[in-house]
Structure prediction request, 210 residues.
Amino acid sequence: MISQIEGTIRRLLENRVELDVGGLTYEILLPSRAYQQIQAMDPEAPLRLYTYHYLEGGMAANPIPRLVGFVGELDREFFQLLRTVKNVGVKTALNSMILPVGKYARAIEAEDVTTLKSLPEIGPATAKRIIAELKGKKLVKFLIAPAEEGAEEPLPAVTGYQAEAAEVLMQLGKSRTEAEEWVDRAAKEHPEIQASDALLHEIFRMYGAP
Prediction:
């Protein structure tokens, strides 16, 4: 099984990259997120991708070997997790990955059907199935993953009880960006909460203790 590959870009297309590896050219399928990340890289520099190797056609007489590539190992892990959901195949999982995995995971944990069903290949029924099968401990490592630089809109400054909650999270080891992101999301989802201790309780319920 090919789990990692490194080479120089011969051609980059929206859904795949052709990678030259020692004179051999490999065609590697990409999620939209990986395509955007690779576009921002130096096209002359070596590119390393973490890959998922599968046979298109399954047990058919002439299955076609395919490679799917991800810029980070966590992205590949998230893709493989999506594949465990009933009726979510390789192409459905791949095409749906237009968001950073942290944002995708938070939508699942928050049962945000609206965000999920807006993703390519994900309809209302599939969105509900993903939530039912993945919400909970399976998502912890993705929920606490560091935010990608430039991946999210800037967060508004937190003040008052929100700032107190963010300070506690930083004391527990979270970066300021991550702490304020968690606080901002919890505060928006629960505007009735107006105290730092209650907000922290909700944050720990949503993400688990840092």
User: Anything to note?
Assistant: The longest strand covers residues 4-13.
